[in-house]
């Protein structure tokens, strides 16, 4: 493996975050998706990160935040740390909210978040980023799968209004007329719906809220915040916690990144968007939706505006983009080389290629080119 470093020193790749399962700090909100990384087809490719340029990177690099990207990080860090053994990456998979708090307290080199920094969070970041501020670097895309566990039902279609009513407890039984209308010929049981949501502040929750707010305005009248807004339902910690509950509980439904559904063989809902056919949650279908995103940030801040109302054939609308939050200027001298080397690798072609096999979607090339330029300018 150490031989890989020679190749890495010749490369000038760009990237984002990652983390070794052996180095992940566990917390009450951490997501231990057992077997997801090691069983993924991409896991084998990350063992040889020939594209990682280590440069002067060394020492310990702490990071934390989004649990949505945890499985991508597991894959990335295997390759990066094999190529750059002088760096120890330690990513605490908790939540977007906790990651941003840690970043703005100056305790981590970068943070992961499933939604861009708010204006007040940018203001807070200026206290840590001397002469600069926190910027949003889109690094991981993917579908938010609606996972369900309903014995005897192998295929399920829902639309935005029905999802909204399920998650705000207005639809309480699986044989409700609205669900039946979307699933002709499917024998739906007379069974209570047990809906699970995230217990902590979560960018995944916020992105689901943006989708429902944009497509089911009459039934979902909550602001798209990281805190779960609707009455009823049951809470679980992290994407792994929600997925574990759905896996175990017959009659359940919840939301989490596709990688969790794939790793645990959880059935996922197809979404009726008004396209010619209901759309399945896949990396390819999510990429079709993310490709239409517009850059909403300015300068090196690359916050994106997603179109949750798409009706394009094959475009899965419930998507998220996970950002790495870093200082554009004023990074700590001791960790800046490691931050840049790591982000350079994950944004590289090699780093992005591992995403599809793990249930994620690579960032579109046009946007990723700008991400790479922004990383190169970090100081």
From TrEMBL:
The keyword Transport applies. Pfam families: PBP_like_2 (PF12849). Residues 1-18 form the signal peptide. Phosphate binds at residues 66-68, 96, 114, 202-204. One of its GO terms (biological process) is phosphate ion transmembrane transport. This is Phosphate-binding protein. InterPro entries: ABC_phos-bd_PstS, PBP_domain, Phosphate-bind_PstS. Keywords: Phosphate transport, Signal, Transport. One of its GO terms (molecular function) is phosphate ion binding. CDD domains: PBP2_PstS (cd13565). The gene is pstS. It comes from Streptomyces liangshanensis. The keyword Signal applies. GO terms for cellular component: ATP-binding cassette (ABC) transporter complex. Belongs to the PstS family. Residues 56-350 form the PBP domain.
């Amino acid at each position: 493996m150490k031989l890989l470093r020679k190749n890495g020193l010749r490369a000038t790749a760009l990237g984002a975050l990652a983390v070794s399962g052996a180095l992940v700090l566990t917390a009450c909100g951490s997501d231990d998706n057992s077997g997801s990384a090691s069983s993924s087809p991409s896991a084998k490719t990350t063992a040889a990160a020939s594209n990682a340029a280590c440069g002067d990177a060394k020492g310990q690099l702490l990071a934390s935040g989004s649990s949505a990207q945890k499985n991508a990080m597991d894959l990335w860090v295997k390759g990066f740390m094999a190529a750059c053994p002088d760096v120890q990456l330690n990513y605490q998979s908790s939540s977007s909210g906790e990651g941003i708090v840690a970043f703005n307290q100056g305790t981590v080199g970068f943070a992961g978040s499933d939604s861009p920094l708010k204006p007040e969070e940018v203001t807070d970041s200026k206290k840590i980023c001397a002469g600069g501020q926190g910027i949003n670097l889109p690094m991981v895309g993917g579908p938010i799968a609606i996972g369900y566990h309903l014995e005897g039902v192998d295929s399920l279609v829902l639309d935005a209004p029905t999802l909204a009513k399920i998650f705000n407890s207005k639809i309480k039984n699986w044989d409700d007329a609205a669900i039946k209308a979307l699933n002709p010929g499917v024998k739906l049981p007379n069974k209570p719906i047990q809906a699970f949501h995230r217990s902590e502040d979560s960018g995944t929750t916020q992105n689901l809220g943006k989708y429902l707010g944009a497509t089911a305005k009459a039934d979902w009248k909550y602001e798209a915040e990281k805190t779960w807004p609707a009455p009823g339902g049951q809470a679980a910690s992290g994407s792994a916690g929600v997925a574990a509950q759905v896996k175990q509980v017959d009659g359940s439904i919840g939301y989490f990144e596709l990688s969790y559904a794939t790793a645990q063989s959880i059935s996922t809902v197809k979404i009726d968007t008004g396209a010619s056919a209901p759309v399945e949650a896949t990396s390819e279908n999510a990429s079709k939706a993310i490709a239409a995103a517009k850059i909403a940030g300015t300068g090196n801040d690359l916050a994106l505006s997603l179109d949750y109302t798409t009706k394009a054939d094959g475009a899965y609308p419930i998507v998220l983009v996970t950002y790495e939050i870093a200082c554009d200027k004023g990074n700590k001298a001791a960790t800046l080389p490691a931050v840049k080397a790591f982000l350079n690798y994950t944004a590289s072609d090699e780093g992005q290629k591992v995403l599809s096999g793990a249930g994620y979607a690579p960032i579109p090339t046009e946007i990723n080119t700008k991400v790479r330029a922004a990383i190169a300018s970090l100081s």
